[in-house]
Amino acid sequence: MKRINFLILLVISNFLYSQNKQFIYEYKYIPDSTNVKNILTEMMILNVEKEKSEYYGFEKFESDSTLLADSKKGIFSMPPNKMLINHRVIKFPNSTDLKYITIVGFSKYNVSQKVHFDWKLHPEFSKILNLTVQKASTNFGGRKWIAWFAKEIPIQDGPYKFKGLPGLIVKLEDEEKNHSFELKGIKSKKEKFVYPEVRNYSQELTLNFPQYLKAYKNYRKSPASELIGQYPDQTDSEGNFKTGEPIRREVEEALLERINKDNNIIEIQQLR
Fold first, then answer.
1. What is the predicted pLDDT for the residue at 148?
2. According to the model, what pLDDT value does residue 41 have?
């Protein structure tokens, strides 16, 4: 812990001399509100440059890097068969505009959105990673959030879509502790950060947030609707003829089971 604190202080002391910063957060969340003992953890990245910041999951970044490298070699490879946090958030300084990039089903969505946070500052202070942090609170996405920010790091940014405090958000969690983010490391880099763009989706759409929300809700109701007519009729090993529709329905049932266990998303208001 002392070594980590020393590294944090060293980075801060050279902070103004480095243009591009990478903040590493540990994200813990409960995906299924009916199974609160199942707490998942993933490392998240917040890259901050002069003109923008970009937030994404480390495992998804690694997966997309591998897929892109293989595709350039003419190798077809499949993404890992596990649930990954697949959204990215691009924010812009001194602006309420952001870009939310996510994969829903077989489609990629580039969503434009305006987000404003009405923060309330509290006269409460603590220490995290040897940083002096102050408490703040806000409401967003149907939840009340508690943040701890560090004025020592003069960046008005934080994990996911959160921003707008007079210092970097070091720790953030909702009031019921379903979702929590905590800073674990800082890196500096002279080169720009580049995300590996993979284009292996059935469609890529650019939408505003209300349009995306409608598409997202429709997917949760009928996740295999895009597959209608995609499965050919066939004969099984016993010579019985089957149309492709029962196969599609089996796929949809499996997807619905997974979706029903993903009922505790960050912006819970999207499910109402």
1. 98
2. 97
Backbone angles phi, psi at 113, to 5 degrees: -150, 150
The Cα 267–Cα 31 span in angstroms is 12
Same domain flag for 60 and 139: yes
Question: Which residues of the chain carry a pLDDT beneath 50?
Answer: 2, 4, 6-7, 9-10, 13, 16-17
Instruction: Measure the CA–CA gap between 108 and 87, rounded to whole angstroms.
Output: 10
Check: pTM over 0.85? Answer yes or no: yes
Which run of H or E residues covers position 137? strand 131-140
Question: Does some domain include residue 196?
Answer: no
- pLDDT value at position 216? 97
29, 39 contact by CB (below 8 A) = yes
pLDDT of residue 6: 46
Long-range interactions of 76-84: CB distance < 8 A, separation 24+? 83/258, 84/42, 84/57, 84/59, 84/60
Mark whether 225 and 161 lie in a shared domain: no
pLDDT (0 to 100) of residue 15: 53
In a domain, 199, yes or no: no
Number of domains composing the chain: 2
In-domain check, residue 248? yes
With H, G, I as helix, E, B as strand and everything else as coil, classify residue 157: strand
Identify the domain containing residue 96 by its residue range.
2-189
Residue among 148, 155, 127 nearest 21 (CA): 155
